[in-house]
Amino acid sequence: MDIKDDFNMDVDQIEKAITKKTKGIIPVHLNGHACQMDRIMETAARYNLKVIEDAAQALGATFRGRRCASFGHTGIFSFYPAKMLGTAGDGGIVCTNDDGLARKLRALRDNGRVDSVEVIECFGYCSRLDNLHAALLDMKFKYFEKWVARRRVIAEIYDKGLSGLPGLILPPRSGSAFFDVYQNYVIRSARRDELAAHLKVSGIEVLISWRTPLHRQKSLGLGHFNLPMTERISAEVLSLPIYPELTDDEANMVIEAVRSFHT
């Protein structure tokens, strides 16, 4: 199924995508913006489907006052260094209110072991978060709310400085139901590649994600899907610099460079 202009799944298409083989729904809260979880959970309940929330980019984001990863049967966060809360390497966490599932997950992360290294309850993996990475996360978490607040300030600076430019689409403004944390600040332009080259010459690093949509990766065999919005967005997206240490002056330098491209 396709996405909407907020980069998240189009909830109006969910029911059409459900078949007899469907076991669950995996909403992805992209760029720190929550999916419409009320509609998703209603549909899942109606069809008796599990919901696995991918909140890798949405730690701290909420929908109607409730945090991402707290709606579904499970929710996941990523601690990859470039995420909202990153450690010194790969890492992540799975959240659930199901005690039985939690025990299964603990077993899967540690070679099938939970209470004793001598007892293996199932086949598992070596996916433990090591103590050093955990200690870094514990330290950084003390600053997390301040970092989110700073990201939101930078996003507001970009919103004000870039609004009204012809051919430039800013991230959709969220209503009161959403609290966005801006893992990424993603703009769209039909002249994306030219704009990216202009910003590079100006000394500004940007990120182009999903240049080739997943369903167009030949080796995956997903070419039968018709996803026009996904393809359009993949051709237009460009992520501007956004991180807590970015100063107002630096954000304004980015704005000036983008505006100079459009004049």
Automatic annotation (TrEMBL):
Q: Which superkingdom, per the lineage?
A: Bacteria
- Keywords, ordered alphabetically: Aminotransferase, Pyridoxal phosphate, Transferase
Q: Which GO terms describe its molecular function?
A: pyridoxal phosphate binding; transaminase activity
Q: Which GO terms describe its biological process?
A: polysaccharide biosynthetic process
Which CDD domains does the record cross-reference, listed alphabetically?
A: AHBA_syn (cd00616)
What the record says about family reads: Belongs to the DegT/DnrJ/EryC1 family.
The protein here is known as DegT/DnrJ/EryC1/StrS family aminotransferase
